[in-house]
Records
---
Amino acid sequence: LWVLCLLLMVVCSAHTARILAILPMIAKSHHILFHSVLKSLVSKGHHVTSYTTIPLAKPLDNYTEIFLENIVSAEKAITADQLKVVLNLSPIAFSTMLFKEGRRIIEKTFENNKIQELIKSKEHFDLIFLETSFAQEPLLAFGHKFKAPVITLHPFGSFSLINTIIGNPLCLTYVPDFSLAHSNRMTFYERAINSYSI
């Protein structure tokens, strides 16, 4: 009898989840983290459906990938020279540019036919992974649609907007905003700039 109870407990605890990932950001660097997390979940037996702009290099079992074409067109892709200009923007101009681009990406995402089909679908998901930085918060609505918990992924270090969204404290006196080149040993002037940029 004890063996039967133990066997039933193991069988009941070994269920896998259907996981939805919606990752429309067009930066390959963001997807390095996302792909690692999703591949790890697949290796544990979960089924992942990923709507993405950066596909995996090799297909996996239990991993369905839906490519979101038309999120970025060839003429909108950033060049190396443009990236140098972007990285030299002031913190305010840099944040403004990120949010304008994020809004454009999210509008293109919701206009995408495959996302429209997902919105109208009757599919069931147990968990949803999203990147919700840079004006991508409307994606959180998928948690309500599928009545599933949402895990938001963020591919790089902490910065003021994300800290505010997830409830991390803002330590302006010694944690520089990601858009600044300050160290954690800021002068009074650098702290003032850090506070202003946030």
---
Amino acid sequence: MKQWFAAILALCSVSACSGPQVLNLVAQTPGPVQHNIAYGPLPRHTLDIYSPKVMKPDTPVLVFYHGGSWQYGSKDDYKFLGSAFAARGIQTVIVNYRLHPDVIFPAFVEDGAKALAYTQKSIAKGRPVFISGHSAGAHIAAMIALDPEFLAAEGTNICDATRGLIGIAGPYDFTPVEPVFKRIFPTEILPSTKPINYVTNKAPPMLLLHGTKDTTVDPKRSEQMAAALAQHNNLAQVKLYPGVEHLYIIGAISPVVRRSAPTLVDTVNFIQEQKSAGYPGCRNQVKS
């Protein structure tokens, strides 16, 4: 299956299609989809909502932040993801946020927090909310979950806003080397850009997924984050997928390459386990 997908990508390289476009071609949306909902005043402040065919009072909501090195990507690339989770009874919100070179840190995290607060108040309306992201999107999700200032600026807090986080191939202790990343994350503020530096005993439950053949983000980043969370008595689990690469771990949510990794199943199981549970930090959280 992976070889077949690679062949399709090779064909796409000469026919102007992309990997996400291939995955989206076979995606079937089970219920209604709402496109380009504004969660803020700026052009990139938009989101799409993929809903299950049947909505229930406790239908969970998953807010997803796309990857792309904080420079690329769009919610439009993830129809396959929204459709897959909606088919499993999870309403899915896929978020656009501002990108470099238009902005640097922390603008994209501020956008992510704004989108989560909007989801909490205007979409979920009391239903359980989870946040997730791939690569740069996992970094954004983790910053929102661990640094309380971002949600405080939106009039909420992590205890009220979400029941858990699923990080997929996230750079939680990222030190920029390439010039473009040094522009996105200036040296003088570097410590404040790392989610791992904000771990306390008030973190939401986290499931951290990573492929062992990821050469873009070292799998050790997820292991180190899980260890830091556990050291502060938080609920954290890391799952390493043998032989899985950086893009395949997210592509595996599509039926095209689902055998590559159990990303979809593990995420759905985590959401179902945690949707009715609180977490220890809630009882100590000062609510806004």
---
Amino acid sequence: MQKSAIIIGAGVAGLSAGCYAQMNGFRSEIHEMHTGPGGLCTSWRRKGYTFDGCLHWLVGSLPGSAMHRLWQEVGAVQGRTFHRYEYFTQAIDEKGNRLIVYTDPDRLAGQLTAIAPEDGRIIRRMIRDIKRLSRSDMPVEFSIPNLFRMLPFIFMFIKYRMPAEKLAERFKSPLLRELFVRALGWHDMSVAFPLWTLALMAAGDGGYAIGGSRPMAEAMAERYRSLGGVIHYRSRVEKILVENDRAVGIRRADGTEQRADYVISAADGHATVFDMIEGRYAGKKIRELYERLDPFPPLVYVSLGVAADYSGEPHAISFPLALPFIMGPHEISRLGIRIYNFDPTMAPKGKTVMIVMLESNYDYWEELGQNPRQYRAEKKRIGERVVAGIAELYPKISRQVEVVDVATPLTFARYTGNWRGSYEGWLLNRKSMGITLPQSLPGLSNFFMAGHWISPGGGLPSGVMTARSAVRKMCRSEKRKFVAEVP
């Protein structure tokens, strides 16, 4: 008799889990609380503009790489055109000095050395490490042979486990210290992450899929349906049913129940462990990790539709504000802009989409959300301040903006259920380095988890990789060989 599986969430992890479940002979259904697939991997349209909420670059865009094979298995990359970046980002300081973080290691070395010839030795070492890593293809499955292939990545992440600020302290040049942090620093994330990204891009990987996130999510949903899977939208799961320490199904928000042999939660990790199962199987280790690890800070996501052509401008740039502004407990003293001048599908011809992401505070917005009038007023104010800030770099922008769309941490939480509005799970820093959260809960059988709350650092690859692993564990439980195929 064919075994059944219920999957909670139709984001990248849930869709991937569904695809692999179907490939391996399980009869699966996905329950998604939103109206379409993708979860955080999404975009939305406003007055002819498309605002993308996820995809900046994709690990596995390079044909022949191990990760590309996984994306092919779940139907995500077939027929997609990928844009390769000449540079990762640009950063400007208060005096107008600029660092261009080229994806070609030799050009990057020239840029860094021109800024700080006195730091030539450490620059050469860093570039050497980037080049070495660019020649390695990251394995996607654990095995003894793959453990040896992982060594370059392990060494890189150990050597550069500190945040960008700590690495920058080794530079003699104050200018390079400043620009390096402005370009590659984010919160207290390990600097290994952006350096690894540069290695990917140096190898020709890490491209951007023209069309953005939504077509990718829709392609994955279509792949799942073609394998015989069923997706239920507007189907919020409130409880995971448990009998005799075994997951046996779900209860939806409307009170209806559905039973299955296995349950995979690709939903928010905190909601899964502490709400859907009421913390009964959390165990000491998982409770400690949820108390100790740092989620990615929530964002205020400001999207602009601009009636002007910015094709000659940097696609990613950060700069200081002459007039900083306050947003809750934070002072916003710099802006980072992403200009979608490399994707013609995002805006009508001759127009441009710009996106600014501001690190924010969930509690501040949660309190504002209790008063809809104040909440709307603050969103409007932040949008206006962002436009005014961009005008310091591009003075004509104020009269060119046609659309201002502001998403807050409450928006992220409402549409995706992510804990405290976090957009990528656990921050990759010293606390989380080398940690992988368990995909099952102690004492609970026939239940697995997938998604970025399992794998610190998050990102789209964590979705498909943890989903693949979850279904492999299901196959092991059934004593059957795991299979994965490219359509």
---
Amino acid sequence: MQGLLRIGQVSKLYGISLDTLRHYDRKGLLKPIIDPQNDYRYYSLEHLDILEMILVGKYIKIPLDQMKERIDSESIDGYLSMVKEQKERINEEKKLLNQLDQYAEDILELLTTISKFKNDYTFSTASVYKEIDITIYRIDLETLLQEDTKSQQTEGIESLEQWAFYHSEPNGTIVENDEVIGFSFADSTINTTILQKQFIFAAEHNIVAQHHVTGYYSNIMFWGVKKDLMEYLYKLCCHFNLHDSALLVKY
């Protein structure tokens, strides 16, 4: 047929398979002209315009059924609205990817630090004071495990800082409060808006307790197992004479 392209030519021109074009035909998205004499499929320039719309829509992840609905309506406004909606979703994905990139960078930095890290038993690094302003949400483990207060899955990726609470007794003994656990949100935390609101709501209803830490504090890093940590905390408290003091440990 003059002025028309065969299905194989369209396949090569756009770098898509024959099966893909046949799939669009079956879905009613792109119905070719059928030669009744040989059942060959042919495509006009108008078909190619529609195909380009489909391929662009597919690339930006617009569902085929949604594209078919807008294409069938033959309204440019409908297609324009669909692309605008998808552009908003793409911007949200870009934001998430940027956060993921920062999160991966933080993990790489942490792992690099750990690979070269040695515990400081002179405690010289603890002499550096750092300004801290953080809210830790304390929750009883028993409450956390109750069926009616289990956290519900929310959209996105969530990453929380976990805290444990220790106390140095007047006699130097280190005691862990293993009945509670703490959570906080780092600046690089990904998509935690919904989860953070849930914690604030829980605090307002006395399900969790807010522990606000602000001011200048010395901090020190440690790498090891629980038994070694207890010994390290004991030596640290003895070194600085920290008796009857609260110790916060972030994992």
